[in-house]
Amino acid sequence: MSTNSEIHLDFDAVVIGAGFAGLGMLRRLRDELGMSVQVYETGDGVGGTWYWNRYPGARCDSESYVYCFSFSKELLQDWNWSGKYPEQPEILSYLNHVADRFDLRRNIQLKTRVISAKFLEDQNHWQIETDQGDCVTAQFLITGVGCISTGNVPEIAGRDSFEGDWYHTGSWPHEGVDFVGKRVAVIGTGSSGVQAIPVIAEQAKSLTVFQRTPQYSIPARHETVDRRFIEEEVKPNYDEILEKARWSKSGFPVDFSERSALEVSAEERQRTYDAAWDNGGMQFIHGTFKDIRTDIKANDTAAEFIRSKIREIVKDPETLEKLLPMDHPYGSKRALIDTDYFETYNRENVELVDIRNTPIQKITPTGIRTEHEEFEFDIIVFATGFDAMTGSFLKMDVRGRNGLTLKEKWTDGPRTYLGIQVAGFPNMFMITGPGSPSVLSNMPVAIEQHIEWISDFIEFLRERGIETAEADVDAETEWVSHVNEVAKPTMFMLANSWYLGANIPGKPRVFMPYAGGIGTYRRKCCDIADNGYEGFILSSGSRKRASMAASS
Ligand code: NA7
């Protein structure tokens, strides 16, 4: 493919993944920058997270009117969500609609997993290989692999001996699972478990939940969408609403409280919490008091309020005792919202097993054995989460300069500049990589900010004939320290969570997302761009490149 003076590349850019990130990036690079782009996607459909997570009750915790792309005013006006929170099938329909409406499918190769990506230093480009035998070259490698996409099925002894059916919430069968008349176990009570448990309980003959850590959860108050609100308040004001979300702390167009939980009277505090509980959703963590996430005393007031609500709901004293979260502050793990989660434990057919006190010893051919008891099941559901933020990167063999692998580079935890680039891996851009706000914000807002910033950067490079852009190692080191500094005073450091990699045995304990807020982060990214992409080494290279024809 290459001659002495000229290198012909297969594509200007290869994008990995066809979820929100990959679809948005493809459209932007192809349709606005005129680049040739190839997307590879493992699934046999687009949708990413929403293609895989089809478990019962799966829905997004962001309200639907802000869980969307903002690049097309027409799309914003045309699309109508049916629920206050978007359900998985509807989000998947939305992403399929986007793929069709913007004619994206012709540049997406489905059922294809990228297995390796190598930066060829002598030629300044990437060589990408897939499990389907593709071996292609591209100037830019862009990852849209998702933050929460590599499932964690714990290696519990005897797992493979189970003779019933087992599923992980993150790779749910497309045809669904029939729980009727079945004895079902759910292991795990994170977001997925908390969503799935009430729905499975309604169908199954019996449901036994194996809980390692009790959860704080706030009622979502899910309902059909308020059409008047959407037509009269949202659609005419979409620009302002989304602009507010972009510069907010967490990607939502909401006002954060400026009050301290410790500076109001006990009555006022109670009123505030009661109102947030009644309204439901993320308002509880965002809109009540400013110091819930930073001051343990303030946090205690919120935690105790939630425990008081759990006490009101759960009738059986033993079950209640197990459900009360006492060992970590509220919001130190992913803040949850639910529909009838605690109420479900009042059902006759539901039992809760505390595996902190009575650990699972093994999975047997017929069920699960704990230290105290033997249970029989037809189905086991692993709602045990993901190897978040780094898992999907490290499944691939990614090699930068000097053959250094990303795995080697990240031995002690992920190191990135802005969560966008890694020193030693030129022209590789990560959409919502570790070190960016990503999972601490409304994802489409975080994703679009990266899509815009990365593509503006690529445009800058192309206009100036710059061949490679690479994070400077000192800028990267400073960013990693900054990410740690920002996380330090928060509650996030006080729990074993997937934010810290604590759910995966052997994973370095490093706080991975950027906790400074999406608006603050956005400002930093803008300033860096305005300063000529400060912290990046830009190089024109020595070889002439014959660019691909515009979009194929
Ligand atoms: P999470 O939030 O990581 O939850 C996983 C749950 O599974 C959690 O309760 C874990 O307990 C439990 N778990 C994990 N490993 C084990 C083992 N080995 N044994 C028993 N229990 C275990 O994943 P989700 O899928 O619910 O949510 C992921 C994100 O998706 C969510 O935060 C949203 O952003 C969307 P633990 O709390 O670690 O003690």
Brief synopsis:
It contains 17 helices and 22 strands.
Record keyword descriptors for this entry.
alpha/beta; 552 residues; binds ligand NA7; globular; five-stranded parallel β-sheet; disordered N terminus; eight-stranded mixed β-sheet
- Mean of residue pLDDT values: 95
Ranges with pLDDT <50 over ≥5 residues?
Answer: 1-5, 543-552
Bound molecules: ligand NA7
Structural class assignment: alpha/beta
Q: How many angstroms separate the termini?
A: 18 Å
* Approximate helicity band: 25-40%
How would you describe the shape? globular
- The radius of gyration is 24 Å
Q: What is the count of helical runs?
A: 17
Topology, number of strands: 22
Q: Which range does the strand content fall in?
A: 15-25%
- Could you give a short account of the major beta sheet? 8 strands, mixed
